[in-house]
Amino acid sequence: MYLSHYKLKAPPFQITSDPRFLWLGETHQEALSTLKYGIYENKSFLMLTGDVGCGKTTLINAFVSKLKKNVICGVLCDPGLSLMDLFNHIAFLFGMDHAFKSKGEFLIGFSRFLNNAHDAGKRILLIIDEAQRINTDLLEEICMLSNIERQNTKLINIFFVGQNEFREMVALHSNQSLMQKLTFSCQITSLDEKNLAMYIRHRLKIAGTTDPIFNDEACAIIYRYSGGNPRVTNIICDLALLTGFVQETHMIDADMIMECVQELQLSPVVTEEHGWTPPAPSPEPTKEQDKTENWEDDIEYPSETHGAMRHEVPLEKKYPNHGEGPISDIYQDTEYKENAITHDKPPVVKNAPEKAHWTRRLRNDSQLLILLGLVVIVIVLSFFIFFRA
Fold first, then answer.
1. Is 304 exposed, middle or buried (0-12, 13-18, 19+ CB in 10 A)?
2. Distance between CA 309 and CA 311 in Å, rounded?
3. Which of 168, 186, 328, 339 is the most exposed place for a label (fewest CB within 10 A)?
4. What is the mean pLDDT of residues 1-30?
5. Residue 229: CB partners within 8 Å, gap ≥ 6?
6. What does DSSP say about strands 326-328 and 182-188: parallel, antiparallel, or unpaired?
7. Average pLDDT score over residue span 298-320
């Protein structure tokens, strides 16, 4: 809707997990490196956690899109299934065209698949997204899949990706076997204020523009209400772009962001207690006044001077002008500033007519109008009497 208004080629702040818009914060970069190391070194188990909306799924999609051809990958998006539904879904992800009716049947077929893939020089990767939805029994069944192995190598790598609650689940005593098998564990955190501003500019650039649509004050307010969470940031920025489109402006400022967060009913996530400081307001640009305005018509300038404006600074204040004599400080601390001009004489300003003068003029004009009205009435009555006679 607003793409042409901002000269964009694609919506920059959709909440879909499009890997094209991936921007790597410090912890995102670390997590991506860990994922790459885990698969290419065949590390079997790995855990990646983070808050809701911090970019886990986008990171996974970007990671999967860059895998080499010797990696067969399946991504399980919803592990909240029954046991056999889970096994059949895993079989479907890896192209096993068979519906298994029992656990034993699945294990035989899946073991055959893993061994054939290894003989073909392939590596198998199962990514379980939203891992916090797995119950303890299913988690144990999934871990048992790693027991399908050869003497010198693992035949399957399993990466768990979920919210921070999954980390707490793994720490339970009942899941100690998984905790011991986890080779690597990494956690994604929200962006800081500096990285959030870079994130916004990055998404706008990918969408087709390098214009600074969001000023620094707007980014600071976005950070305060999103806490650096990419998903919340996207929601705020998308609404802000729509607001700017409606208001026919190409610059998003702090006031517009406040309007958006109020509409979204968001509360500050980062406050002064967390070290956040309100952004300093940008100085408003001084607008050169129209030189045809009435207030300047009453100013006469001596032939030696030009361009001077009204002032309240004492004219007795002197400044050396390259050793040539005094000049007037008539454009210091005023709203209107021109290029520095030498003035040897102050401008002559005519005194405006006093209020009594205008009162007298209005009274005289009113009396004249009344007199003219009486004359017109007399003339009309004369004509009326004349024609009746």
1. exposed
2. 6
3. 339
4. 88
5. 51, 52, 53, 54, 190, 191, 269
6. unpaired
7. 39
- Taking the chain, what is the end-to-end CA distance rounded to the nearest angstrom? 80
pLDDT given for residue 19 in this prediction: 87
Rg (CA), the chain: 38
Summary mean pLDDT of the chain: 79
Cα–Cα nearest to 250, from 73, 4, 1: 4
Cα dihedral across residues 153, 159, 164, 170: positive or negative? negative
The candidate with the shortest Cα–Cα distance to 224, out of 256, 253, 190, 267, is 267
Please, what are the domains in the chain?
A: 26-188 (3.40.50.300), 192-274 (1.10.8.60)
- Residue 361's pLDDT band, with cuts at 50, 70 and 90, is low
Rounded to an integer, the average pLDDT of 185-204 is 92
Residue 236 to residue 200: CA distance in whole angstroms? 11
Report the candidate in 242, 244, 263 with the shortest Cα–Cα distance to residue 252.
Answer: 244
Q: Parallel, antiparallel, or unpaired for β 45-50 and 157-162?
A: parallel
Instruction: Give whole-number Cα distances, 194 to 54, 190, 201, in Å.
Output: 16, 12, 11
